Amino acid sequence: MQVKGHGMQVKKNHRFLEEVIITILFLARQGLAFRGHREGDDSDNRGNYLELLQLRARDNALISEGLNNKTYTSHVIQDEIISILGMEVRNIIVQEIQSMKPSFYTIMMDETRDISRKEQVSLCVKYVTKDMKKVHERFLGSEASSTTCEALYSLLKGKYPMALTIHCYAHLLNLVLVDWSKEVPAVKTCLDMVQELYTFVTGSFKRNATFENIQRQLNDGGKKTTLKPLSDSRWSCRADALKVICQEFKAILETTENITTEDTNPKSRAEAEALLMKVATFDFVFITSVLNDIY
């Protein structure tokens, strides 16, 4: 009887684990965060993973009972299941590509910094299906290190000597423009001012609201825009930032003038006055206009 009871419990645990995997798959497909800031029983919101399991437990007795076992809802189990699912996805993609004879595919790689300031690599694999009529896109990701790109390049070249590797031309052009802008003092000063304007205006809800209100007045209540930050890696950011400066230059001037006279904070008034003196110059207007055409 004891052995039979143990066997039934094992089967029940397996079924509960299946429900846990279904929940994890849903959150992963939707791109939702799993964990909350506070996951204790006294928390009002314990994160998407635990809250979704709790919701499903209302009409699923198996989940309701299984939630009493903290092992299957722990961070360790979450990470392990996500890792296993990721490997399974990767294996399926590889099998699909290998099953096609001949196989035609390309790999596009990019990296970005996540909220924890770690570089993450994204891989996009494009390949043609067996009927040669449909192109599939599949995406993979991994944490990046300083040697990730070089290692992947060496691996591909070692296995496929005829493989063509093409650097992103937009990225190459952006790198040239970034280096060039740092070497020309007038351009560097201008771009520093663009970033300084963004930091100053958007760094305060009150100042940003002033900028938006002045835009509405000048544009007869039309669409308002926000100042954009600069970025060395994302080439579109500089174009977006310069475009807003050129389009809303009058609103920027009136915003800084308004802050110098109306703001009750002496520091804000002083910063606005210093910005106004730098922005309301021929050099700034001319260089931003030229850079806007270049970017």
From TrEMBL:
One Pfam family hit: DUF4371
InterPro entries in the cross-refs: DUF4371, RNaseH-like_sf
DUF4371 domain sequence ranges: 10-149
Protein origin, superkingdom: Eukaryota
Name the record gives this protein: Zinc finger MYM-type protein 1
